[in-house]
Amino acid sequence: MAAVEAVLIAGPTASGKSRLALALARRLDGVIVNADSMQVYDGLSILTARPTAAEMAAVPHELYGHVNPAIAYSAGAYVRDAAASLAAAKAAGKLPIVCGGTGLYFKALLGLLDTMPPVPAAIRERWRGRLAAEGASVLHHLLAQRDPAAAERIASADGQRIVRALEVGEASGQTLSALQAGQGAGPLSDARTIKVVLTPARPVLRERIARRFGEMLGEGVLAEVAAFRAMQGAMDGSAARAIGVDELGAVIDGALDIATARELAVTRTRQYAKRQETWFRHQFGPDWQRLEEADPDRIAGI
């Protein structure tokens, strides 16, 4: 393992990434570094399926729940935090095992994203003002005209990401998708990493998603969402977009029964998993090992 500087484990939600990372960390004296854009936030450990307290006590885990949900957290901020965690693992003689479902985080770590240009405050405030005045769907239509590739992968209701794409485009003179296709500096060398993406069969994944949400209900996720909604600024940030916040919030408000909320959240999670699968299939090349099962013995090079 001397020539390998990290193991990367990607895959759709509920595919078994955390279980595989834990097995490898135990076997290889590793440190697990989060690469999931929802699990970085404090306050939703159950809903975002963060590793349990027992799992986090068994081996070192980094970048889980370390961000205030009221704070905007970008891919650039993630790379800076991850670079520090990777350096600390190396200094301690431990193998970093980067695990998560956010594909852009992996590309950024490998230097496959250009550094995003700074956006002047005036441009940022103007687009935020338009979002408040016109709504996300109107700006999404505008983004589709200016940057069709970005509009295709950003949901029409995701105002924060729509505005980000528009403001970066205006500030840089290039589309966000063009910038993200570029080559930048990353803390990991593509040639010195073992890269794995989990690809469970669709029926298996669908069943796991449904079962997991039921387990979350049993673990107290409704109370967790209620506490999250009471955190100052939490509902204004990206963490509030986590699947289940709206559905369980409606239960808390008396607008939905728990069975309907569960069905809606499971459906949305399955749709999200499908989008992740499509992204990984198109964005990750043949140097990523495809594994249907989260079995460490099937990973080549370890």
What does this structure look like?
The chain has 302 residues and is an alpha/beta fold. The protein folds into three domains: 6-115 and 184-201 and 280-298, Rossmann fold (3-Layer(aba) Sandwich); 121-180, Orthogonal Bundle (Histone, subunit A); 203-275, Crystal structure of tRNA isopentenylpyrophosphate transferase (bh2366) domain (Helix Hairpins), CATH 1.10.287. It is built from 13 helices and six strands. A six-stranded parallel sheet has the order 3-2-4-1-5-6, sandwiched between helices. Strand 2 (30-34), helix 2 (53-58) and strand 3 (61-62) form a beta-alpha-beta unit. Helix 5 (121-134) packs across helix 6 (136-146) and helix 5 runs antiparallel to helix 8. The longest helix has 26 residues, at 258-283. The radius of gyration is 19 Å and the shape is globular. It starts with 5 loop residues before the first strand and ends in an 11-residue tail after the last strand. Belongs to the IPP transferase family. Residues 36-39, 160-164 are annotated as: Interaction with substrate tRNA.
